[in-house]
């Protein structure tokens, strides 16, 4: 569920550990693997006339696949171990039941994908910062009331239509930033 804005304003915030772990585990799975993959196979791929941009596009696809598998596995396991009677009562925005669960899936996919894109973009230049900054963004999201934070929609208590749209736009912009920085930065061999 996350932390409501009223709780943050009151100063009685408790770190939502499950929420934090759920969004941090994919970052720990990936770490700097895409940079290492380029370092190991970059010369060979350049010899086969693959451009850094095409390699970056494949990386975006792999990040999407990793995110999709992670969200499917985690939400599938959570659905299997819980009683399905809650699904009829589950409401997210104007959606009820299964459509609300689909909206939650989309929000979680976009949020994890955004965090992975941020990690990989920053990690291309500095691997430790690539993991520290997404962690920090998650923690900042918990303890702030800034309503334009795109990660706010990752907490069910803060979801609204504007946050979801902001999350989508931010994710698309970060994909473009990743492709541009990866395309024009000097590859390490």
Strand content: under 5%
Arithmetic mean pLDDT: 85
The ordered H/E elements are HHHHHEEHHH
Rg calculated over all Cα atoms: 18 Å
Arrangement of strands in the largest sheet: 1-2
Number of strands: 2
What form results from the Cα inertia axes? globular
Q: Oligomer, anyone?
A: single chain
Which structural category do the helix and sheet elements fall into?
mainly alpha
Low-pLDDT stretches: none
Number of helices: 8
Biggest β-sheet strands, sense, barrel:
2 strands, antiparallel
Percent of residues in helices comes to: over 70%
Euclidean distance between termini CA atoms: 44 Å
What does this structure look like?
Strand 1 and strand 2 form a beta hairpin. The chain has helices spanning 5-10, 17-30, 33-47, 52-81, 85-89, 98-123, 127-143, 161-184, and strands spanning 91-92, 95-96. The mean pLDDT is 85. Helix 2 packs antiparallel against helix 7 (127-143), helix 4 packs antiparallel against helix 6 (98-123) and helix 6 runs parallel beside helix 8 (161-184). The chain is built from eight helices and two strands, in the order αααααββααα. With 189 residues, it is mainly α. Strands 1-2 form a two-stranded antiparallel ribbon. The radius of gyration is 18 Å and the shape is globular. 72% of the residues lie in helices and 2% in strands.
């Amino acid at each position: 569920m996350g932390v409501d804005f009223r709780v943050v304003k009151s100063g009685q915030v408790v770190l939502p550990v499950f929420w934090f772990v759920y969004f941090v585990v994919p970052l720990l799975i990936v770490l700097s693997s895409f940079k290492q993959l380029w370092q190991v196979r970059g010369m060979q791929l350049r010899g086969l006339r693959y451009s850094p941009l095409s390699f970056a596009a494949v990386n975006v696809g792999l990040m999407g696949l990793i995110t999709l598998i992670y969200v499917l596995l985690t939400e599938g396991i959570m659905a299997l171990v819980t009683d399905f009677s809650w699904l009829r009562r589950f409401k997210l925005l104007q959606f009820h039941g299964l459509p609300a669960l689909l909206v939650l899936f989309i929000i979680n996919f976009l949020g994890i994908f955004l965090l992975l894109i941020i990690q990989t973009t920053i990690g291309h230049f500095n691997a430790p910062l690539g993991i520290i900054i997404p962690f920090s963004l998650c923690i900042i999201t918990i303890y702030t009331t800034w309503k334009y934070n795109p990660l706010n929609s990752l907490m069910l208590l803060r979801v609204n239509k504007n946050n979801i749209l902001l999350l989508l736009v931010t994710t698309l912009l970060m994909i473009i930033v990743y492709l541009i920085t990866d395309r024009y930065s000097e590859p390490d061999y």
